[in-house]
Design goal:
By secondary structure, the chain is mostly beta strands. The protein is built from no helices and 22 strands. It starts with 17 loop residues before the first strand and ends with a strand. The relative contact order is 0.12.
Length: 171
């Protein structure tokens, strides 16, 4: 039996599509398909985070963004993260899912649907939150810890819960 792998995730910054000055990659960071990942200046990527690029579409992370420990960003559908965004430890950002193809087809054999995630400037994504495919989080929005974001979040609002709902506007 032949086994395949996507590689071990080890990388060098020069393999990235773009990497601004003064980026920090802590120990244990894994990067897959670095040729489709672009980081701005002063980006921090915490211990054991995984930046899972894809053979198509791009992961773009803006200047001064902070990605916490053990975060998992999967950009099959594309990820666009603005500047000065805080992504808490353990956050999951997912851009693909299996379509429902009927009971006669195993879910894992169903077609994969891709949808981009956009997180605009100045947002904060709380510890352990999950952002699902096709979501846009507006500028300055805050997502509560453990929230599951299934729908767009308007700018300058606070969303929390499972599924995440807007609780209030930010002052």
């Amino acid at each position: 039996m032949r086994h395949r792998s996507h590689g071990d995730g080890r990388f060098r910054a020069e393999q990235l599509k773009g990497c601004g000055p003064d980026c920090v990659f802590e120990a244990g960071v894994l990067v897959f398909h670095p040729e489709n990942i672009e980081l701005g200046a002063n980006v921090y990527v915490g211990h054991h985070a995984i930046l899972k690029g894809y053979y198509k579409n791009t992961m773009r992370i803006g200047d001064e963004t902070w990605i916490g420990q053990q975060a998992f960003l999967h950009s099959a559908g594309g990820i666009d993260i603005g500047a000065r965004v805080g992504i808490g430890p353990g956050v999951r950002i997912i851009t693909s899912s299996h379509a429902e193809a009927g009971r006669n087809i195993p879910i894992l054999s169903s077609p994969i649907e891709l949808a981009p995630v956009v997180i605009e400037d100045d947002c904060d994504i709380g510890v352990g939150a999950i952002v699902l495919p096709g979501v846009r989080i507006g500028k300055g929005a805050q997502i509560g810890a453990g929230a599951v974001v299934t729908e767009d979040v308007p700018p300058y609002t606070v969303a929390m819960g499972v599924p995440a709902r807007v609780a209030r506007e930010r002052p």
